C-alpha cells in the first residue's frame, strides 16, 4: 500500500470483528479489519495496509455514530494504535471484553459457560507502570501497528504520571538507542530505565538493575528482565479473587506455577501452610528470593513448570497456573489431569490460549466454578481472565 496515496472508501457498514478489538467491513472483493469503529456504524475509512493477506483500515468519519462512541481524550489516537478502545465509553469497553472472552470460548467449542461481568479498573487512565517506547531520531514514541510509522508521544494517557514525567524529561534526547523501557514503582516512587543512557544530557538516572513496588502491603523487588503486573490495583484485586476461590484455611499446600517474582506466592503465603513457587527465569527467581525474605513457608524452584509438575506426590491442595500468552505446556495439562489438584486457578492474558487449555482441563477431571475477566488494560482490547476450577473426582 502506497502511504502517500491512501485509498478512501465511503459509507462502509461495520460489523463485529473482535480480532485485536477491531471491527470488520465486508467489501465485495475483500474483508477489512477496521480501527476506530464500533459495530453497526456506517463510516468512511482509509486503507492502511495489507499484512499477511489481511487488509486494515481506519475510520476517518462516522456518519451514524454509535451511542457508545466518545471523543478520545488522547490527541494521538489513530496515529498511535496502542489503545484500540479510546473512542468507546468505558462501560461498553468492558462489555466488548466480555464478548471477546465469550467469542474465544465459542471458537474452542466451549458453550454455555457463565462468564462473569468484567471486573472494572479503578483507573481508566494513568494506570500502567511500564512503558516500552521506540526511538526514532532521538524522539520517544510508539509505532503504528498498521503503517509502521513512528509516532512521537509526549504524554501517554494510560501511563502512570511517574512514567509521563520521565518521558517528558527524555523526549528528544535519546538518540543513542532504538528502544527504551521505563518502569515506575508508584508505591515506592522509584524507577527502572533501561538501557543506561550515557550520552543523554538529562538529570534523570538510568540503567537501574531493579526497582521496587508494594502490593497489598508486601514489598517486591523487580529486575529489568522480570515480569510484573502492569496495573497494581487490579493485580491486588486479582490476588484477592484467587484467595477467595481457593478458600484457604491455613493448612494447605499451594503450588504457584509460572510464579514470576513471587507475586501470588507472597500475597497468598499468610493463608497457606506451604507454598511452592515454580519459575524458569533466573532473574525473576533472584527477585523472588528477595521478595520472600522473612516469609518462611515459601520454597522456590527454578525450572520450567513442565519439567517439575509431575514430581509432586499425592494430591495438591491448590495450584495456580499463570503462563505467558502462549498458555500452558501440553504436558503440564496432561500431568494435572492425571494428578488433579483440589482447586485450580488459571490466570490468562490471552483468552484464546485459555479457551484451548480449558477445553483439555474440562474434558479431564475438572469443573468450572467461575470465569472472571479482569480489566488490567483500560482503553485497549486486552483482557486478563481468571478461570477458577475444582477437581470433580
Ligand atoms: C504472565 S507471567 C506471571 C508471573 C506472576 N504469576 C505474576 O503474576 O507476576 C508468566 C511467568 O512465567 C514464566 N515462565 C514462562 N514460561 C515458563 C515455564 N515453562 N515454566 C515456568 N515459568 C515460565 C515467565 O518468566 C513469567 O515470569
UniProtKB/TrEMBL annotation:
S-adenosyl-L-methionine binds at residues 229, 258, 279, 322. One of its GO terms (biological process) is rRNA base methylation. InterPro entries: MeTrfase_TrmA_AS (IPR030390), MeTrfase_TrmA_CS (IPR030391), NA-bd_OB-fold (IPR012340), SAM-dependent_MTases_sf (IPR029063), U5_MeTrfase_fam (IPR010280). Keywords: Methyltransferase, S-adenosyl-L-methionine, Transferase. One of its GO terms (molecular function) is rRNA (uridine-C5-)-methyltransferase activity. It comes from the Bacteria. The active site is at residue 349. Gene3D superfamilies: Nucleic acid-binding proteins, Vaccinia Virus protein VP39. The keyword Plastid does not apply. It holds the Pfam family tRNA_U5-meth_tr. Belongs to the class I-like SAM-binding methyltransferase superfamily. RNA M5U methyltransferase family. This is RNA methyltransferase, TrmA family. It comes from Dehalococcoides mccartyi. The lineage of its organism: Bacteria, Bacillati, Chloroflexota, Dehalococcoidia, Dehalococcoidales.
